[in-house]
Amino acid sequence: MSMGAPANEVELRHVSKSFQSHPAVLDVSLSIGAGEFVTLLGPSGCGKTTILRMIAGFEAPDSGSVFLRGRDVNGLPPHRRDVCTVFQQYALFPHLTVFENVAFGLRRRKSGEAETAKRVRSALELVQLVGTEARRPAGLSGGEQQRVALARALVLEPKVLLLDEPLAALDLKLRRQMQSELKRLQRQIGIAFVFVTHDQEEALTMSDRVAILRAGRLLQIGTPEDLYDRPETRFVADFLGEANILPARILSRDDTAVRIGVAGSVLNLPHFPGAPSSGEFLLAVRPERIALRCEPGENLVPCRLQERTFHGEAVTYRVQTGDGTVVQVRNAEGENADVRIRSTDRLFIDLDSASPVVVRDDRN
Ligand SMILES: Nc1ncnc2c1ncn2[C@@H]1O[C@H](COP(=O)(O)OP(=O)(O)OP(=O)(O)O)[C@@H](O)[C@H]1O
Ligand SMILES: [Mg+2]
User: Fold this and answer.
1) Which of 86, 240, 266, 248 is nearest to 167 (CA)?
2) N or C, fewer C-beta in 10 Å, the chain?
């Protein structure tokens, strides 16, 4: 542990892991502070569960190290790590009551009867299940079973709780409700959560920071706002929310401005971060940041409406520019704008005010 600075709750340094020479996790470095809610987000098979299993001690890295509170835990068995895991399939014991399910870990630790009863009670209070002690899992709803699984981990008072897609089995409404409950719980008890999901909205709404993984690699980690507003790669821009990825080219530049060609038009932009000095690059633009105008103007790209989709809270317009580029625009400016947009043949998109960001192409 370095002197002075408080140790991270969890730290992975250059961790790699292969199964039968197939790499599952590749050179991942990542740290999680005390009380932080960090989400691992990525498509199926990208290594999320493997990372959790290495933190918990069920799996050993081939190379690199896992540190818990500044201590290298290589070789330390799971039950000595002060880390608990809530698995996707809650793995409750069907023949045991709620009380006995929650008490299970304490009994293995030879906790006394009075102490066990007290701690089970406070864990059930945390997840708001007091009164269900005598019931069995089969008699509980999905959300209640989920909360028993949480209580079973929390009762051991871990420093870190690992949650592997804990809400995946719940229907949408219950899932949203459990998301805010989990978040409340995490704030209340103040321990670090490492949460796995492949639901991007869940990641954005719950986390202090999100780590985006792809094929075993950590692509980017940051606050939800960081990742959404400043994705570094095409994959991150696409994976988190929706993005228009527009090929662009530097035409010329001087001290104050850059001329770029994009979507068949020429735009004069002030210097922007990440712009190359010449050549081609990619811009990512969020559909809801683009304004759709009915009048021509400076730095506007002419286009035609191809398709309009009504979503209730918003309308998405699919427009096509002169060179055939298709751009999605999400516009919630009210009915009047919608009526005008639908009734005109000539439309213009404002990319300039849409905060486009330069992204690296990492499609392969
Ligand atoms: N015990 C194992 N033996 C062989 N291959 C494994 C093992 N565990 C994981 N893998 C492989 O390692 C890769 C990463 O798996 P992992 O379970 O970590 O992915 P994941 O991101 O959790 O995916 P999902 O979202 O589907 O749960 C996958 O290609 C998987 O097939
Ligand atoms: Mg998994």
Assistant:
1) 86
2) C
